């Protein structure tokens, strides 16, 4: 059984494994970093720690909107990264047998699996790939 937090990006639902999350907060403006990628929204101080803001809308190429007042931060457990998402949607406990491979080749690297939740399909974010792609000029 795998547990997920569901979030929205451009009216689509995505999932992130619960064990990857340290905390969820309302977003707040960060300090921009010159010469950074368009998905890098800068850095922000949260509880005396500096977090990199990664705009998932832009990173996954689902929208090119900048940070909004209603957005949420998903703070990752293992890196000081704040994933910027539109909103939180739900939670889901999914039997491992219900997780299927994402057959869409273009998105499989970042979203390798999918599951049904109610009447919709939820793509699962691969946090390892997202983090690896944010260093050294990745995708």
Overview of the molecule:
The strands form two sheets. A six-stranded mixed beta sheet has the order 8-1-2-11-10-9, with no helix packed on it. 29% of the residues are buried. It is built from two helices and eleven strands, in the order βββββαββββββα. With 139 residues, it is mainly beta. The N and C termini lie far apart (31 Å). The model has no long low-confidence stretch (mean pLDDT 89).
Helices and strands in order:
Layout: E1 2-9, E2 12-17, E3 21-26, E4 40-46, E5 49-55, H1 56-59, E6 72-76, E7 81-85, E8 87-94, E9 100-101, E10 113-117, E11 120-124, H2 127-132
Parallel strand pairs: 2-11, 5-7
Antiparallel strand pairs: 1-2, 1-8, 3-6, 4-5, 6-7, 9-10, 10-11
Brief rundown of the structure:
By secondary structure, the protein is mainly beta. The protein has helices at 56-59, 127-132, and strands at 2-9, 12-17, 21-26, 40-46, 49-55, 72-76, 81-85, 87-94, 100-101, 113-117, 120-124.
